[in-house]
Amino acid sequence: MRFISLDCGLVPEDTTYVERTTNITYVSDGTHIDSGVARRINVTLRTEFQQQLWNLRSFPDGQRNCYNFNLTKNRRYLIRGFFLYGNYDGLNILPSFDLYIGQTKWTSVSLPEGGNAFMDEIIHVLKQDRLQICLVKTGETTPFISSLELRPLDSNVTYVSQSGSLMLVARLYFSPTPSFIR
Q1: Residues forming a β-bridge with 67
Q2: Where would I find the Malectin-like domain in this sequence (predicted)?
Q3: Which of 18, 26, 82, 149 has the fewest CB atoms lying closer than 10 Å?
């Protein structure tokens, strides 16, 4: 089982590192996409976030920009996208855009007022051995992504779905201590 953890916008393309708080290895997204511009969040925000959110890839050109993966047909994957605006463009305008899996809309990314970040995840069953995750421009703002993670799920993990995908609605964890859980 191979996890894919992409730090979007990380350059150069062959860069790899281990995020110290989670011990997860991140690689550059450059081998999975051939469009977009590598950018960085405002330096003053970096101490507040994990390293995989310091960079991002923005897509000022084109209506639809897609990541491409070769994976395993009929396998379930947990797919998670992180979006940290961090005023990377100096415009201080929170972007909104759509996220697609292939030709099917996954979700609309809309950062909350007063917020900087958005995360969404879905459990998706692959119908073929290829996967496209696309950012689609829906208005005047520029789509972007900070990190993208794909986790193959064990075949004994049972999720029943009529459509083949399950979206995250909420995840709650009540802990007696303020610990970071991944």
Answers
A1: 133
A2: 6-178
A3: 18
Distance of CA 58 to the CA centre of its chain: 12
Instruction: In whole angstroms, give the CA distance from residue 37 to residue 65.
Output: 11
Residue 66 burial (CB count, 10 A): 19
For the residues of 127-150, what is the DSSP string, one character each? SSSEEEEEEEE-SSSPPEESEEEE
Strand 144-145 relative to strand 130-137: parallel, antiparallel, unpaired?
unpaired
Distance CA 42, CA 111 (A): 17
Q: Which CATH superfamily is domain 4-167 in?
A: Galactose-binding lectin (2.60.120.430)
User: What are 47's two structure tokens?
Assistant: 């101490």
Kindly list the domain boundaries of the chain, sorted by start residue: 4-167
Q: What is the pLDDT of residues 59-86, one digit of tens each?
A: 999 999 999 999 999 999 999 999 999 9
